[in-house]
Amino acid sequence: MIEATNNPASAAAPQSHRNEKVGQVVSTKMQKTIVVEVEMRKAHPKYKRVMRTSKKFYAHDEHNTARAGDVVRIRETRPLSRLKRWQLEEIVRRSSLTQMEESKAELA
């Protein structure tokens, strides 16, 4: 006989199996859209040298909170437009340039 257990940890939030990537914001020129460049390292198939490749992803930023230079985490989502298939999950680290601009704006 199988008993149902009331485990609060498993009932709280179901784990999502959507793809996540961490990258740097390159552009914020569009409304509610950011361009995130993700750097990947992989070995060359023949020569085994580790090579860096990068790819740009368009991500949805609902509140326009990300700025150029920020390190962000994006999560895969349903297609939102022709190029947008990612959504901003969180801002991991703010850019030092952004912090300097904000401090200058407060002084002025």
Could you give the topology of this structure?
Elements: H1 8-12, E1 20-30, E2 33-43, E3 50-60, E4 71-76, E5 86-93, H2 96-107
Parallel strand pairs: 3-5
Antiparallel strand pairs: 1-2, 1-4, 2-3, 4-5
Task: Please summarize what this structure is.
The protein has 108 residues and is an alpha+beta fold.
Structural account:
The protein has helices spanning 8-12, 96-107; strands at residues 20-30, 33-43, 50-60, 71-76, 86-93. It has 108 residues and is α+β, with helices and mostly antiparallel strands. The chain has one domain: Nucleic acid-binding proteins (OB fold (Dihydrolipoamide Acetyltransferase, E2P)). A five-stranded mixed beta barrel has the order 1-2-3-5-4. A hairpin with a 6-residue loop joins strand 2 (33-43) and strand 3. The chain is globular, with a radius of gyration of 19 Å. The model has no long low-confidence stretch (mean pLDDT 87).
Main features:
108 residues; alpha+beta; OB fold (Dihydrolipoamide Acetyltransferase, E2P); five-stranded mixed beta barrel; 2 helices; 44% strand
CATH superfamily: Nucleic acid-binding proteins
End-to-end separation in angstroms reads 71 Å
Question: Which class in CATH terms?
Answer: Mainly Beta
- Helical element count? 2
Number of strands: 5
Write down the CATH topology: OB fold (Dihydrolipoamide Acetyltransferase, E2P)
The secondary structure category is: alpha+beta
Largest sheet: 5 strands, mixed, barrel
What general outline do the C-alpha atoms trace? globular
